[in-house]
Write a structure and sequence with these properties.
By secondary structure, the chain is α/β, with parallel strands linked by helices. Among the domains are: 1-154, no CATH class; 362-374 and 410-577, P-loop containing nucleotide triphosphate hydrolases (Rossmann fold), CATH 3.40.50. It has 17 helices and ten strands. The strands form two sheets. Strands 6-7-8-3-9-10 form a six-stranded mixed β-sheet, sandwiched between helices. It has a four-stranded antiparallel β-sheet with strand order 2-1-4-5, covered by helices on one side. Helix 2 (15-49) packs antiparallel against helix 3 (52-109) and helix 3 packs antiparallel against helix 4. The two termini are 68 Å apart.
Length: 578
């Protein structure tokens, strides 16, 4: 019920539309009842008397009713679609907003395919509830009450006579309804797994070709589709059995009505017209009842899928913003780590009692062996995570007290592998500042040493670069990322091995762009190639999550400590490789 209340809460703003939808359905039902009543009047009154004058008048009225009914049906369909789209939109927006609140920790713990599956499967299930189940169940419930009253009014004896047939459907029908719906849910799960494997196949196309893994990939897909096919057959079996039970119940009830109804007509307890109309209402009533059973059973199972969304939306973000955050008049960029400790969930601490002060405009390089916590420190500065101990301050203010908007707008992040959108060069640069003018964009590209290669592209700044920038080289991608930083104009720049995946020529070009970008900005860089950071103001050697050594390149080299060991280790590996 908690999940159902949450799902229905997105319909509350559109309650007037829902009321109009139900009223349109009732109007359609009322006209259908009026037509049935006309059949009764024709059989009992008009046909025996032979008075055709009133017949033509009634037919004219019925034609008007039919036109009205068609209009009501069309308007009901429009309202049904509108209610679904509006409520679904609000749900999607709420999910996207919550995804942003969950932040980096969620994305590192949950694969992209799982999140995409939420939107493809679970959201689609809730959309069906909005489109079909909630409005239709309300309408059918009201229709059921009206039809039951009409049947009792026509003949309470015949109504009591057919109750056992209704009960027989309620004894058998829900079983097959539930089985069919459960297997439908399993089919959806298997289809989701098949979609994930399809996604993996497309995303890893280079690896597939390089390793000759096409047969392996096809075998995995065929195995998954075989499971999907087997479950689909079982689903279809129960679905057909569900229909068979429904038709048998309706048929037996119809036979019972005719068997007992003829007796009532013969004994004068019912007219022929009443009997015909009763038969029409019976078919409509049983159809409505079976629809309610089907919809209720299917909705209950859809709510199990909706509960996954409900659990997702109730996840508490690991990093939360203050209700009334502090806003600095200006971000200068002085950063202080004060006895900071941090560990990822269910893992040992990566950072242990780390302390460091970085002055405004200072360039600091974090170096050390892999797994020492260097990249984690950058994530803590950007508040992708919060420390479990100690405190990080920006310009003297704890990061936790600053708003996400001000903090992250003041930080520029250049990753080892920059994500580029599949659009144009222009769109990828302006991502750093969506309102930037063309002049600002070109100036940023020139400052990042990217303008020259962009001009040589087929369409210049309007060239489509393909998914993840597949049409560009590694160095070109990084210079576009740096152009983003220029146009964003952050006070703080975080570099996470921004040149480690580049060849020497590309590294030289990117390094020129970086030197231009970093001028006057507070910079923290994680680097394995010491040649790219040896000119920095400070070098901090991270060992087991602690600040083991700190100083300039020359000072640490003269000291003969961990930095010298790192350099010697790199030289030995390079010699062994050569």
């Amino acid at each position: 019920m908690a999940t159902y209340r949450w799902v229905v809460s997105y319909l509350k703003p559109y309650a007037p539309l829902l009321v109009l939808f139900v009223l349109c359905g009732l109007l359609v039902t009322s006209i259908e009842i009026a037509i049935a009543k006309f059949v009764q009047h024709f059989i009992d009154v008009i046909a025996p008397s032979g008075r055709t004058a009133s017949l033509y008048r009634i037919i004219g009225m019925l034609c008007g009713f039919v036109v009205l009914m068609l209009g009501a049906q069309a308007w009901r369909n429009v309202l049904q679609r509108k209610i679904q789209e509006l409520a679904s939109r609000d749900l999607m927006v709420a999910m996207f907003r919550h995804l942003r609140k969950l932040g980096f920790a969620y994305y590192e713990q949950h694969p992209v395919g799982e999140t995409v599956g939420l939107f493809q499967t679970e959201v689609a299930a809730v959309q069906r509830i909005y489109r079909v189940y909630v409005p239709t169940l309300i309408q059918y419930s009201v229709t059921l009450i009206v039809l039951t009253a009409l049947l009792i009014e026509l003949s309470w004896q015949l109504t009591v006579w057919i109750v056992p047939f209704f009960m027989s459907y309620y004894l058998l029908g829900p079983y097959f309804e539930k089985k069919a719906s459960v297997w439908a849910k399993d089919v959806n799960k298997e289809r989701q797994l098949a979609n994930k494997r399809l996604y993996d196949t497309f995303a890893a196309i280079h690896e597939m070709r390089a390793f000759g893994g096409e047969r392996w990939s096809i075998a995995r897909l065929m195995q998954q589709f075989a499971v999907l096919h087997a479950k689909q057959l079982t689903q279809y079996f129960y679905a057909y059995m569900r229909g068979t039970v429904r038709r048998v119940t309706i048929g037996l009830g119809a036979v019972a009505i005719f068997a007992y109804g003829i007796t009532l007509v013969r004994d004068g307890h019912m007219t022929v017209g009443e009997f015909v109309v009763y038969s029409i209402f019976y078919g409509r009533l049983l159809g409505t009842m079976t629809a309610i059973v089907t919809l209720t059973t299917e909705q209950r199972l859809l709510l199990q899928q909706a509960s996954i969304l409900h659990d997702f939306i109730r996840q508490i973000p690991s990093v939360q913003e203050e209700l009334v955050p502090t806003r600095l008049p200006e971000i200068r960029g002085a950063i202080t780590f004060d006895n900071v400790s941090f560990g990822y969930p269910a893992r040992p601490e990566v950072i242990r009692h780390f302390s460091l002060h970085i002055a405004h405009g200072q360039k600091v390089a974090l170096i050390g062996t892999s797994g020492g916590g260097k990249s984690t420190l950058l994530k803590l500065v950007a508040r992708f995570y919060d420390p479990v101990g100690g405190e990080i301050r920006l310009d003297g203010i704890p990061l936790k007290k600053l708003s996400f908007e001000q903090l992250r707008s003041s930080i520029g992040y250049v990753f080892q592998e920059t994500y580029l959108f599949g659009g144009t060069v222009r769109e990828n640069i302006q991502f750093g500042l969506p309102d930037a003018t063309d002049e600002q964009m070109v100036a940023a590209a020139k400052a990042a040493y990217a303008h020259d290669f962009i001009e040589k592209l087929p369409e210049g700044y309007d060239t489509i670069i393909g998914e993840r920038g597949i049409k560009l080289s590694g160095g070109q991608k990084q210079r576009l990322a740096i152009a983003r930083m220029f146009i964003k104009n952050p006070s703080i720049v975080l570099l996470d091995e921004a040149t480690s995946a580049l060849d020497n020529i590309s590294e030289y070009e990117v390094q020129k762009a970086l030197d231009s970008l970093l001028a006057g900005r507070t910079t923290i860089a994680v680097a394995h190639r010491l040649s790219t950071v040896r000119h920095f103001d400070q070098m901090v050697v991270i060992d087991e999550g602690q600040n083991a050594e700190q100083g300039t390149y020359e000072e640490l080299l003269a000291k003969g400590g961990l930095l010298r060991n790192l350099i010697q280790g790199q030289q030995e590996r390079r010699t062994a490789y050569e």
